[in-house]
Amino acid sequence: MKDVDGLDLPTYEDVEAAHARIKPYIHQTPVLTSEYLDDLTGAHLFFKCENFQKAGAFKARGASNAVFSLDDKSAAKGVATHSSGNHGLSLSYAAGRRGVPCTVVMPRTAPQAKKDAVMGYGGRIVECEPSTSSREEVFARVVEETGAEFVHPYNDPRVIAGQGTCSKEMLKQVDGLDAVIAPIGGGGMVSGCCLTLSSIAPQVKIYAAEPLNADDAARSFRAGHIIADDAPDTVADGLKVPLKERTWHFVSNHVTDILTATEEEIVDAMQLIWKRMKLVMEPSSAVPLATILKNRDVFAGKRVGVIITGGNVDLGKLPWMKN
């Protein structure tokens, strides 16, 4: 760790240590390609499939690093977090592997598939209203009651270091990348990309992709300071949370641009990947392809790593289904 402007931030050495620590508990996920999508976009796309990750999402990386970083005394009290789904179920997964309790504060509107997964891994759910303010208020009460270690979904140096292992793997799997693009909500995955790529592949440009309906990161990027929305409404349920000070540090210093897509564009991209690549992925994971299709001139002729962040979707409520 290093101290920057009063923030304890992870270094690339922390990413390397995290990778060694979590290897027994994660998959090295595959990178897949599609000639059809290459022709459609004019770019060479390499999809890093974290939908095949343990617990169905990249967040198993950061959660596992946080849980297995704890000393025995702290771990015995358990861990707790607030999450719309993937971090919560990933922390439950990691806590289960270590045999410690896990409590997750989740919006009552979170997909049932993600709630089921949290409980399936042994986690306890406490529900809140679907707003940042309600989430943080209920969570404060949970920590006071349990004494559990707070593992923030993204504003935690242990989590960011764990997420950095994804792009570390990708660099070994794909030669000559020109750019990497990942979805952005709170910015944990993008921060991990920034940490790794700025350290060992600074020539690779980093893009973030965001729903237009929840574009606080894009507006923050252009304004030069964090702008937080309390309760944005988007089909990409994993991208509703705002940046925090640690993720803002990485985003503001290393991201080339933050691109946005409409709800219709996100659902269209999600369908396209399901149909053409036969990949089960959630709406948040489709946002990068949606923005590439919308900004073909930015990526034309480039070798682009596209991070598919998760596949925990409610199959009974797919966004193109008629109500």
Automatic annotation (TrEMBL):
Note the superkingdom of the native organism.
Bacteria
Keyword annotations of the record: Lyase, Pyridoxal phosphate
InterPro entries with a match to the protein in the record: BHydaspDhtse, TrpB-like_PALP, TrpB-like_PALP_sf
In the UniProt record, the signal sequence range is none
The Tryptophan synthase beta chain-like PALP domain, residue ranges = 23-310
What is a biological process (GO) this protein takes part in?
Answer: D-serine biosynthetic process
Gene3D superfamilies xref list: 3.40.50.1100
Q: Which cofactor does it need?
A: pyridoxal 5'-phosphate
A molecular function annotated in GO for this UniProt entry is: magnesium ion binding
Q: Which family would the database say this protein is a member of?
A: Belongs to the serine/threonine dehydratase family.
List the NCBIfam families hit by this protein, alphabetically. BHydaspDhtseBhcB (NF045641)
The family database entries (PANTHER family) matched by this protein are listed as: SERINE / THREONINE RACEMASE FAMILY MEMBER (PTHR43050), SERINE RACEMASE (PTHR43050:SF1)
Full protein name: Pyridoxal-phosphate dependent enzyme
